[in-house]
Amino acid sequence: MPTLNDTHNPQHRSWVESANSGNSDFPIQNLPFACLRRAGSDETFRGAVAIGDQVLDLSALSGSGLLTGLAQSGAEAASASSLNDFMGMGLETWSALRAALSVLLREGSDQQSTLEGMLIAQGEVEYTMPCTVGDYTDFYSSVHHATSVGALFRPDNPLLPNYKWVPIGYHGRASSIGISGQTFPRPMGQLKGPDDVEPRLGLSQRLDYELEMGIFVGKGNELGSAISIDDAEDHVFGLCLFNDWSARDIQAWEYQPLGPFLAKNFASTISPWIVTVEALAPYRENFSHPIDDPQPLPYLSSETNSDAGSFDVKLECLLLTEKMFEDQQAPTSLSQSSYKHSYWTVAQMVTHHTVNGCNLRSGDLLGTGTQSGPSHEEAGSMLELSRGGKESITLPNGETRKFLADGDTVIMRGFCQHPGAARIGFGEAVGTVLPAKV
């Protein structure tokens, strides 16, 4: 598990002045990774690191002669059109590059004049997927979400008996995961209302978002070799924001007995920036299950996981309707929550995923599942906010929603802020619903 070191020092400032505002997502204590190029160009996509309102081109840096050893090897790998190779190099290399970047970008650096030519304004770039996602698994780690949604689908048995014993997950579709700015047409599938005799093929009328976090696997494991809970986070490169769009009416008909299929495989949106687990070290919290709940089995338990297995990432979901956009109105906040409410930690999900010998690979993505908090106002989906479509959500401009309409844009944000630590953020995950292709 990465621990606190000099790169987390809240007193450090960058010579990139926009990184020092105190409310930037990307101060020198963050240094997240993405793949990008200048917008509208035919340049090759390559790795970059965010600093303030700028990005540092890692391809230019790797050819500058400013780095040595593991930091240079890491920068060369991160200069590629995807970060898979860099992510597979492991914690020692990730940490070496982070430490070198922190020194180079720090106020007073002797290399400022050289590095200034390697910066590109964030407003001038376009992003691609940070890595090739070979496999994607979506977990169900918020007990508050599981309970409230279970009550809608199964009023007499909202939380199934295995939930508090095992991290529940299902294998999703990697091919439809897209970067922030993703647009997608309204999905179609089989629908069957409670009073319908037979199902029919039709457009989803209960389209929803899911406020999640994405967990990117770094160094993988061999087939048949499980990852222990004490080693789990050494196999995790970092986290991002994740919106796992869901068609609730398709889901209601198809989800038994094997879970989601067409209800979720049409689109999923991630934020472009991956915040490393090392950057998140100051925002850890202790973890435990309520004393009256079943306690995790030994393979899912460790002193380290109990002491600091949880991350306090503050999450927010906002909505910008087509009318709001036309009227030049700001998006409205629908809910706020925190990842600290998760019933299962990152380490527990990785460990459980591999306990049967499943081999994870660099770039694999794990979704946390919808991150709802304990109160109704902290719900991470419209399904919960509208109480299953029974209550309308009234927006500031007078529009109402129970589920998403064509033209709606959903914006997800996340940040960490603790006393004695710098504020760091994840940027945004933005997606827009288009009319169906019919």
Explain this structure to me?
The chain has helices at residues 58-62, 69-78, 84-87, 91-104, 112-116, 143-153, 248-254, 303-308, 322-326, 346-354, 382-385, and strands at 33-38, 46-51, 54-57, 119-121, 125-128, 136-139, 169-171, 177-179, 182-185, 188-191, 200-203, 207-208, 211-217, 236-243, 246-247, 268-270, 275-276, 284-285, 310-311, 314-320, 332-338, 365-367, 393-394, 400-401, 409-416, 424-434. Strands 6, 7, 8, 13, 14, 16, 17 and 22 form an eight-stranded mixed beta sheet that branches. A five-stranded antiparallel beta sheet has the order 4-3-2-1-5. With 438 residues, it is α+β, with helices and mostly antiparallel strands. Helix 2 (69-78) crosses helix 4. The protein folds into two domains: 6-128, Fumarylacetoacetase, N-terminal domain (SH3 type barrels, Roll); 136-434, Fumarylacetoacetate hydrolase, domain 2 (Alpha-Beta Complex).
